[in-house]
Design brief:
Layout (H helix, E strand, L loop, with lengths): L1 H16 L2 H5 L4 H13 L8 E11 L2 E10 L2 E8 L2 E8 L3 E7 L7 E6 L3 E5 L4 H20 L2 H5 L9 H17 L7 E11 L4 E10 L2 E6 L6 E5 L3 E6 L10 E5 L4 E5 L4 H14 L6 H5 L12 H14 L9 H9 L3 H12 L1 H7 L3 H9 L5 H9 L13 H17 L9 H11 L2 H15 L9 H17 L1 H10 L1 H11 L8 H14 L2 H13 L1 H5 L4 H13 L1 E2 L11 H4 L10 E2 H12 L4 H32 L6 H21 L5 H4 L11 E2 L1 H7 L11 H12 L7 E2 H13 L2 H12 L10 E3 H15 L5 H26 L38 H11 L16 H4 L14 E2 L18 E3 L2 E3 L1 E2 L18 E3 H8 L3 H8 L4 H14 L19 H4 L1
Parallel strand pairs: 15-16
Antiparallel strand pairs: 1-2, 1-7, 2-3, 3-4, 5-6, 6-7, 8-9, 8-14, 9-10, 10-11, 12-13, 13-14, 17-18, 19-24, 20-23, 21-22
Helix pairs in contact: 4-27, 9-10, 11-17, 11-21, 12-17, 13-15, 14-15, 15-16, 15-17, 16-17, 18-19, 18-20, 18-27, 22-26, 27-28, 28-30, 28-40, 34-35, 35-38, 35-39
Length: 1011
């Protein structure tokens, strides 16, 4: 109890001393000190930006640990130093599966952070609302990045985020765009309290005025009382009005359609006027799109129900017409009564906000159509396949004109947004849009639907629909509790949520009734879909409770939906595809669509858009992590039979592989995130790594280590990258690793041999030349440098190398018998002596073959004439010869190879100038570093182009040395290597593991040392 009280007091004091300004302002000394401490304690790179930090307690078991919670762009970190004990924790936002605020008797205010492995509880916040809000924002950003890595590149505001204020501004802009259905790139500049004079009610409405670069918007304090969207392209005059006690600090805004809006009670009238005037000057003058649409209202179609038509016209006369109209409860009532067919297209554009994007992007659709014409892709193939399934019962899509328009709209959108491309159900909703809107208008309606109103619905993983499926389950549990358990057991919720939500009921309801649902959807948003789904389920409670399986339940719901009718429709009845598939012998009483919609508002109208968004966030974490887990299971199941690793090891390797990818997304890499992560690809190819990330994982490979490790990693990477795209997927990675960990001696030697063979050189087949042999020597030296039996391996390698040298020389005799009598020439060439050592002729960088005929010279030398040691790099290699020969570039002390190979007695018979240098240990020759003997070794331009060895010769030579056989056949302790890799990620620059206890870096000072 004493410890608990002491910790509580310490937390209160620490939080009290931390002013809000410190957390908000990144330029203060305290925040700079906290940032420095954050990077030092957790070994974070400078690219990782600290957003804010809070004093709190972490509940480990039953005892709280007082410390500091650091919230950065990509990580949640906690540090505590209490009672001489140091605690440290690092969690990636991308690893979080649940984030919730709890209230219990012991902990009235706490935040629970859940990952796959553990739950973490933090409490004792003085401002828990602020902390939880910030954590939600950061987690949401991480989930968006995990879902689609376009976020890393396209979200230009993200790299500029430096403080909590930046994140708050981002959240406010998102809320602003969602509230008024504005384009995704619109950013809120500011907002202020005010009143709006409403001429239709002759009174002032209290609310808030929002200003951005292209729009002025108003929302009443009382929900749905009144709202306005005024595009600056429509504004003609902004000026001060006469101030009075009744109308203090007024501001008048006039538009092109002769509407005037009067705002009053503005706190800073002059500043607001200057701000709006500045934006107005930057706004390019454009023709108002509504003027082109005005003629559509002059139609006197006899089929239009005149009462409904004149009711709509009277509403526009009173509340305004076009994008600047007053939107009130009367507007909603108008929509719920039904929209005339001739007005439906324009009102869909207005209510969805698509009209704004269309007005600000003139000619964009035509340009997309021209660019996408003739292009073939997977999306276009799927579009062609589904064209004939798009409202086939409607006459408009029974001819080429309608089909062509639908094809152009869908193809243009797939070209605009390749990350979505085309998804089933898009053809159905687009075909309905084309019935009431022009082709370009239908395109922008589709943009609004896919990118703003139903985000993440129409993609390969339909994440948005899966999230809303979970939301619907929660709403059903709350509002239809007597039916929830039954629906869960039958599995009905999963089925109906995808089919109903993706098509906005168009595929399950008669057409003339479904368009009424679309009317309400474009006005109210997705809450209408939830309300209507709950109403349908609620109306069939008794019948659903009697169902024994999901098929019977779906039949009940299907018949009910088929019975929904629209008696006010002027269209001939059109049976939809779903009704044609049901053999309904039992008549069902008709259900009026307008009564059903009104019933949904009466029973479930209390469900607000904010409530749905909160539920979406909570479930989005779980859904995305479930998708990631499914991806991992599929990948593991696929590669398990191709490797000898256990299931647990494959899962751990996949986790490290994915973590390396995410880390490079956070802090940069040599390739873009979009190149390495594409959720539309098959499971195996969704995560890929480039060379830089592969080097970070190369420590898992048994041959890693030494100065030559990066070069060997490059060779491995090029070998694994079979398609040459400079990226490797997890399957390629783990198969290469499996050869080294579980392959036999022959497999490992064959791989080592392939890593050093010149790629793409079919003229010589798979044989070694002298350049590759030198590289192999360097590789072996580094492979053995950290082995406990290092000296024994050096001796064995020296013996094998000498044997291979002699084999290569003997091979020359058979390939080129005229060279047997080559000796030392006057020009300084070195022939083949009786010791059988390799000798090269050098003369000013030239390499000549003495005693060869003209034809002999042309054959092997012609292909090798331009080859140097740099050519032994794999294709696409980025290293120069200095990396292969670390000593190159140091004057006379440079040797072409860093290693010399000789047998123990041969050097005594060679001239000092010509002999190959070596170091003798126990009277045997070993591989040695010989950078100071550069003048005695050949340089890259003086390599013997006739000398070769084959893989069989290499294998046979290695088999003569027991030490080498033991080295290549010894088992690999993969568990230890995995543990080491995890430790490196905890203690190194990655800090991404949340499944293992984090420990402070060795030697890094803690808080106690800095005080």
């Amino acid at each position: 109890m004493n410890t608990f009280v002491r910790v509580k007091i310490q937390g209160v004091l620490a939080e009290s001393s931390q002013n809000c300004g410190v957390r908000e302002d990144g330029d203060t000394d305290k925040f700079k000190e906290a940032t420095s401490q954050f990077h030092r304690l957790f070994d974070m790179p400078e690219e990782e930006k600290l957003v804010s930090y809070y004093s709190c307690s972490y509940w480990n078991s039953k005892v709280p640990r007082q410390g500091w919670l650091y919230l950065s762009i990509n990580h949640l970190c906690f540090y505590s130093f209490l009672l001489r004990k140091e605690d440290e924790m690092v969690i990636q936002w991308a690893d979080i599966t649940q984030l919730e605020r709890n209230a219990t008797v012991i902990l009235p205010d706490s935040i629970k952070v859940s990952t796959r492995a553990k739950e973490y509880i933090f409490s004792f916040f003085l401002n828990i609302n602020e902390t939880f809000k910030l954590m939600k924002q950061l987690a949401n950003i991480a989930m968006s990045q995990l879902l689609d890595n376009k976020t890393f590149e396209q979200d230009l505001s993200l790299p500029e985020l430096k403080s909590k204020m930046d994140l708050d501004a981002r959240a406010k802009s998102e809320r602003y765009r969602s509230l008024f259905r504005l384009p995704k790139d619109e950013k809120l500049d500011g907002h202020t309290d005010c009143t709006l004079w409403t001429p239709f009610s002759k009174k002032h409405v209290v609310g808030q005025l929002f200003v951005s670069k292209n729009y002025i918007c108003f929302s009443s304090k009382e929900e749905a009382q009144c709202s306005l969207v005024i595009p600056l392209r429509e504004v003609t005059v902004v000026e001060k009005a006469d101030s009075s006690s009744v109308l203090p600090s007024p501001l008048s805004i006039s538009t092109k359609n002769r509407m005037t809006f009067l705002f009053a009670y503005l706190k800073d009238q002059d500043f607001l006027l200057r701000r709006i005037s500045g934006f107005l000057q930057e706004t390019a003058s454009r023709n108002c799109y509504e003027e082109d649409m005005a003629e559509s209202f002059s139609s006197s179609d006899e089929e239009i129900l005149m009462a409904l038509y004149f009711s709509t016209k009277n509403h526009f006369a009173e509340y305004g017409h076009g994008v600047c109209m007053y939107r009130t409860e009367k507007t909603k009532e108008l929509v719920l009564k039904g929209i005339p067919d001739s007005m439906r297209g324009e009102l869909w554009l207005l209510f969805s906000g698509a009209i704004n994007e269309m007005a600000t992007h003139p000619g964009y659709y035509e340009e997309l159509v021209m660019k996408s014409m003739g292009r073939c892709s997977l999306a276009t193939e799927e579009i062609e396949r589904d064209l004939h399934r798009s409202l086939p019962e409607h006459p408009a899509f029974q001819n080429e004109m309608g089909m062509g328009a639908l094809r152009r709209v869908l193809t243009a959108y797939a070209f605009r947004n390749p990350s979505i491309g085309y998804c089933q159900a898009m053809n159905i909703v687009t075909s309905v849009m084309l019935l009431y809107a022009k082709e370009e208008e239908a395109f922008w309606l589709l943009v609004a639907l896919c990118e703003r109103m139903l985000p993440d619905y129409y993609n390969t993983r339909v994440v948005g629909a899966l999230v809303d499926q979970g939301v619907f389950e929660e709403l059903a549990r709350e509002h239809v509790p007597q039916l929830y358990d039954c629906m869960q057991d039958l599995g009905v919720i999963t089925t109906i949520s995808l089919s109903w939500f993706l098509t906005l009921f168009l595929s399950v309801m008669p057409f003339e009734s479904a368009v009424v649902v679309v009317d309400c959807f474009f006005y109210e948003g997705v809450k209408v879909i939830f309300q209507l789904a709950l109403s349908v389920v609620d109306a069939n409670v008794d019948k659903l409770l009697k169902c024994k399986d999901d098929g019977e339940a779906m039949t009940v719901l299907g018949r009910y939906l088929d019975s929904i009718c629209n008696r006010d429709s002027t269209l001939p009845p059109m049976p939809h595809l779903h009704s044609l598939l049901i053999d309904d012998k039992e008549s069902y009483p008709e259900v009026d669509i307008f009564k059903l919609v009104h019933s949904s508002y009466e029973k479930f109208g209390a469900i607000s858009a904010d409530t749905i968004e909160q539920m979406r966030f909570k479930l989005k974490l779980r859904v995305i992590q479930t998708i990631e887990d499914t991806t991992k299971r599929n990948v593991v199941r696929t590669v398990l039979n191709e490797t000898a690793f256990s299931t647990e090891q494959v899962e751990e390797l996949y986790g490290l592989f994915k973590a390396e990818h995410l880390t490079s997304c956070y802090w940069g890499g040599s390739s873009s995130p979009m190149e390495r992560h594409d959720p539309s690809l098959p499971y195996m190819d969704q995560y890929r790594i480039d060379l830089e990330q592969f080097k970070g994982l190369f420590s898992l490979f048994p041959w890693a280590g030494g100065d030559h490790s990066d070069t060997l990693a490059l060779r491995f990477f090029r070998h694994l990258d079979r398609n040459g795209d400079n990226l490797i997927n997890f399957r390629e990675f783990i198969i290469g690793l499996s050869v080294l960990c579980h392959g036999d001696l022959t497999d490992k030697l064959r791989l080592l041999y392939k890593l050093h063979v010149w790629p793409g050189n079919s003229l010589f087949g798979c044989v070694f030349h002298q350049a590759q042999f030198i590289e192999l020597c360097k590789t072996l030296y580094n492979m053995f440098s950290e082995d406990p039996r290092e000296q024994e391996l050096y001796h064995a390698a020296a013996t094998v190398t000498s044997l291979l040298l002699e084999m290569g020389e003997v091979g020359k005799l058979f390939c080129n018998p005229t060279g047997m009598n080559m000796g030392v020439t006057e020009e300084g060439s070195v022939g083949l002596g009786e010791q059988g050592f390799l000798r090269l002729q050098t003369n000013g960088g030239d390499t000549r073959a003495e005693g060869l005929t003209g034809e002999d010279k042309q054959q092997p030398f012609a292909a090798l004439e331009e080859v140097t040691l740099e050519d032994s790099l794999p294709l696409g290699g980025c290293l120069d010869s200095a990396e292969f020969f670390p000593d190159k570039g140091h004057g006379d002390d440079v040797s072409v190879s860093s290693y010399s190979v000789l047998s123990s007695g041969s050097h005594t018979e060679l001239d000092d100038r010509d002999r190959l240098r070596c170091e003798e240990i126990a009277e045997d020759t070993v591989l040695v570093r010989s950078s100071h003997f550069g003048d005695s070794l050949p340089n890259p331009d003086c390599l013997d182009k006739d000398w070769t060895i084959s893989f069989d010769q290499l294998l046979a030579s290695v088999l003569t040395e027991a030490a080498l056989v033991h080295y290549f056949e010894k088992p690999v302790d993969m568990a230890a290597r995995l543990a080491m890799a995890k430790g490196m990620r905890k203690l190194g620059s990655f800090l991404s593991s949340t499944e293992y206890e984090a420990a402070p870096p060795p030697g890094s000072p803690g808080l106690s040392e800095s005080t």
